[in-house]
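Summary of Year 1 activities. Much of the first year was spent building the evaluation harness for sequence design. The harness presents a backbone, in tokenized form, and records the residue chosen at every position. We chose the following record to illustrate the format because it has been used consistently in internal testing since the harness was completed.
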């Protein structure tokens, strides 16, 4: 016995309220429906209805089915057809008096499908707009979240990581190098209006060519970087760049962004318990900070302007970055976290060209003596 695959649903007085499945064949005279018998398993019975007794319309839950209705021996029958092959055969075989109702039903089905496509397009467009809005608005949300974190909290956060790091390093507390960095820092920070930070800058004995900033105003400068600088203006350029990572709160922005959307909303909405949990997580991320391209560019430009206001030659910043990138091809530690692209250098040069000429004021120390003292204390040539 062949398998029974219904392709339509029939309703009538003798059928259950939910209808009964049937197999419909379109023949020359009309429709033949085959049902499975309720009394004898596997037994089938068929009945036919001529086209002349049929009326057709569109119906179904989504109004996308062809509905055929007729009056049988036991009352009215209604047949719901959704199978496209059966509907196509029905339209081809139907006599003339059903043509207009069929076309009307087909038109209704097309309208329903068209409206459904429009609805899905609106839903899809709305979802796409929502995703794009969240994507492009995420930076704004992060900025709002960072603005809600007090500087004092930020300082405690950076202070912990700062002391943990220095505990494993050989710190220089005095000498020409420390005095030079202190003078540079004073020249720069004196030009920061309404500065909310008390900067702590430490020189660490290490041949690593690096410097980094932590949230809250903590900056570490390695002697390897100082020995690479051929002028105090070059080192001052790095300091100005790092100071502005702190001032622009780039570290917090980066960390909050990594914590995710829920954490950002927790901070923006001012959930104190959630904020406390977020702050605990922040400490874990501090030492793995890598700033984004936009943040590096912002630190470059604001650093360049800070150098200018402090009357320190800004060109030293550009030449030092370029020299490190050209000679060391990115192997320098500082460049691995602050990659210098030609576009960034060109942007700095253009910015510098637009600045009004001024006469830089020299530092009070001799850079040659500073580098010589570093070589004497840490080894190597100045």
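For this record, the design step produced the sequence shown next.
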């Amino acid at each position: 016995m062949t398998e029974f695959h219904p392709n339509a649903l029939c309703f009538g007085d003798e059928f259950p309220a939910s209808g009964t499945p049937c197999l419909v064949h379109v023949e020359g005279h009309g429709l033949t429906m085959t049902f499975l018998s309720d009394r004898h398993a596997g037994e089938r019975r068929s009945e036919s209805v001529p086209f002349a007794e049929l009326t057709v319309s569109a119906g179904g839950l989504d109004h996308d089915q062809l509905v055929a209705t007729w009056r049988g021996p036991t009352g009215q029958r209604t047949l719901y057809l959704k199978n496209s092959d059966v509907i196509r055969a029905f339209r081809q075989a139907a006599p003339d008096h059903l043509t207009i109702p069929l076309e009307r039903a087909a038109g209704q089905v097309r309208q329903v499908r068209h409206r459904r496509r429009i609805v899905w397009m609106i839903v899809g467009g709305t979802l796409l707009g929502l995703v794009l809005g969240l994507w492009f608005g995420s930076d704004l949300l992060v900025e709002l979240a960072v603005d809600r974190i007090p500087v004092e909290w930020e300082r405690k956060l950076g202070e912990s990581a700062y002391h943990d790091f220095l505990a494993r390093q050989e710190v220089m507390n005095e000498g020409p190098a420390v005095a030079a960095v202190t003078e540079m820092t004073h020249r720069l920070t004196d030009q920061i209006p309404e500065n909310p930070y008390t900067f702590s800058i430490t020189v660490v004995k290490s041949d690593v060519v690096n410097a980094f900033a932590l949230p809250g105003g903590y900056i570490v400068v390695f002697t390897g970087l100082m020995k690479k600088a051929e002028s105090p203006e070059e080192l001052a350029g790095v300091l100005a760049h790092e100071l502005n990572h702190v001032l622009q709160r780039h570290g917090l922005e980066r960390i909050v962004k990594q914590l995710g959307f829920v954490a950002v909303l927790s901070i923006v909405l001012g959930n104190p318990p959630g904020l406390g949990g977020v702050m605990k997580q922040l400490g874990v991320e501090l030492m793995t900070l890598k700033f984004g391209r936009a943040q590096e560019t912002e630190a470059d430009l604001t650093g360049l302007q800070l150098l200018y206001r402090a009357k320190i030659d800004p060109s030293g910043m550009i030449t030092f970055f370029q020299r490190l990138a050209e000679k060391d091809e990115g192997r320098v530690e500082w460049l691995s976290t602050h990659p210098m692209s030609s576009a960034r250098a060109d942007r700095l040069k253009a910015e510098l060209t637009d600045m009004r000429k001024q006469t830089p004021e020299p530092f009070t120390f001799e850079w040659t003596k500073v580098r010589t003292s570093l070589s004497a204390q840490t080894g190597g040539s100045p």
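Residues 63 and 109 are 7 Å apart (CA to CA). Quantitative recovery figures across the full test set are reported in Table 2.
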